[in-house]
Amino acid sequence: MKRTAEAARLQAVLYLKTGKVVMPGLALLIFLVSFYSVGPVDLVDSTVLTTLALALVMTWAGLSFARAEEPIVSQLLQLKLHSPAREIASRAILLMVFSLIAALLSAAWPLGKNLISEGAFFTRAVTGADIWGMLGLFFSASVMGGAFGALFHPRIFRDTRAAWLIALLGCLLGAYSGIISNSIPVFGFAAWLLPPLHGIITRFDAALSFDPAALAKTLIACWAYALGAFALKSLLLRRIRF
Amino acid sequence: MTETVLSFDHVSKRFGSFEVLKDVTISLKKGECAALTGLNGSGKTTLLKLAAGLARVSSGEVRTPGGIRLGYIPESFPRPAVSARSLLRSFGRIQGMAPPALDERINKLLEAFNLQDDAGSPLNTYSKGMLQKVCVLQAFLGRADILLLDEPLSGQDAASQETFIRLTKSLLSSGTAVLLACHEKYLLSALADTVYEVGGGTLRAAAATPQNDEDLYVFDLPGEGSVIPKGFDDFLRVKQEGAQALIYCRHGKGNDMLRALLDAGWRLKEMRHEKNG
User: How far apart are CA A225 and CA A45, in angstroms?
Assistant: First the structure.
């Protein structure tokens, strides 16, 4: 585990040095600053919208992280770790760390504004359960978005432009999958392939607080999707070698 | 019997309809060095990648014993904005090396390849030759059972090439097997036990051509079990034939070795300057 963590650390340094993290990071910051510029805001609604934005931004980050992978470094790491799976796992660990940072930042911004405004930034008082619910949604949606984006690895999708288009389309279809399924029922059979963003919107529609059952379903859906995406990527990359 | 550490059993590799390797069967034993030569695009790099498990065979099988440690020098190396020292330190830790021994090993290698003064500079400021040295150093960091070397000398200065040959020879004598793709005849001559010419998808055994311009010293061995002293960088290769040792050196570089062996009681039987190739 220590060696895999060291590989993740090296990959983090190499990725950060490419500067490719700047654009998605900036996009998230711009969203947070503009979306939370005027209060008071509804706690659940604003959290759901931020969750969707985070999933989108982390899809971007996951995709850019996957496409910034240096094949020679990956080859050397696989040999030094004696396992392709451990090298792929080190990248998944790193994406989770990025997701955690993005989730903490996204929660800290509105909660900080609420603290500064002495509790007047949200339409109601914030409870401990709200904070845990917010963090759980942010982190889970970030990991899910990152895992979805990371599927668009250059060894899986050679064409960069197609990879970006399909990832964006996947997010949009994921957000509207319920509506599309209502109009085109056959779409429902393929909807599970898309990030489960629609469920996040519908489960908390007009909610005043985070219902524990709805929250649990959402977190399970996000993590199941993320783990499925990580497993699929690992399987494909072990088949499509260098 | 010497242990086989790598074997290709009727291996073929296709890219689409193009078959780059056809029914290749070779094996590599502990302490053995096999070299691959051939034109660019003939399949040398593909063969090394198959040996490393970095590419999949289309048919046949590549076998290595379980838990084997592979060192690999790829044909090119990236230029991230990190220093050589920091990259080597990370690679060493990933290989499971402990920091004090790791730092000592890195310093030794940097010094041997005359890279100690630039070790703190980012790799994106390095010349091609300097970058190739880092590529070589990462493979020499830890102990490997098999070294897979793809054009290891490309762009390196003469002193580093000699250091590379000396280090590789010492690894070979300690049991590391080496599979090497290169074009340099003197490297083949210095290291290879077997040379294969790769072309048309097949491997053909070729003679290890002696380097142009080298000196051959033929000595009578002073006694049974005589060991040739170590530490002469200009040894290209040594052969024992009965009670005689045949030592090949770079032309004009054998004086120290000659003096040491004569002092050790060896008797020079013959010396000649060979021009080959």
Answer: 23
Give me the pLDDT at residue B212, please: 55
Segment A72-77 shows an average pLDDT of 95
Domain coverage including residue A37 = 2-239
CB B275 within 8 Å of CB B212: yes
- In this prediction the ipTM stands at 0.84
Q: Which of A9, A10, A72 has the CB atom closest to B77's CB atom?
A: A72
Compute the Cα dihedral for A65, B82, B181, B31 and give only its sign.
negative
User: Chain B residue closest to A84 (CA)?
Assistant: B54
Q: Could you tell me what percentage of chain A is helix, strand and coil, using 3-state DSSP and rounding each to the nearest 5?
A: 80, 0, 20
Residue B121, min C-alpha distance to chain A (Å): 14
* Mutation for testing the A interface, residue in B46, B83, B88, B94 having most A CBs under 10 Å: B94
Q: Which residues share a beta bridge with A122? A: A41
Query: Is the previous residue joined to A84 through a cis bond, with omega within 30 degrees of 0?
Result: no
State the smallest CA–CA distance between residue B51 and chain A in angstroms. Answer: 11
Which amino acid does the sequence have at A77?
Answer: L
Q: Per the CATH hierarchy, to which homologous superfamily does domain B4-206 belong? A: P-loop containing nucleotide triphosphate hydrolases (3.40.50.300)
For chain B, give the number of residues: 277
d(CA B268, CA B224): 17
Looking at the 3D structure of chain A, how many domains does it have? 1
Mean pLDDT of A93-97: 96
What topology is assigned to B214-274 in CATH?
A: Alpha-Beta Plaits (3.30.70)
pLDDT of residue B15: 92
Please give the structure tokens belonging to residue B210.
């002696």
Residue A174 has pLDDT above 60, yes or no: yes
With contact defined as beta carbons under 8 Å apart, do A77 and A84 qualify? no
Which DSSP category does A146 fall into?
H
Give span(s): CATH 3.30.70, chain B. 214-274
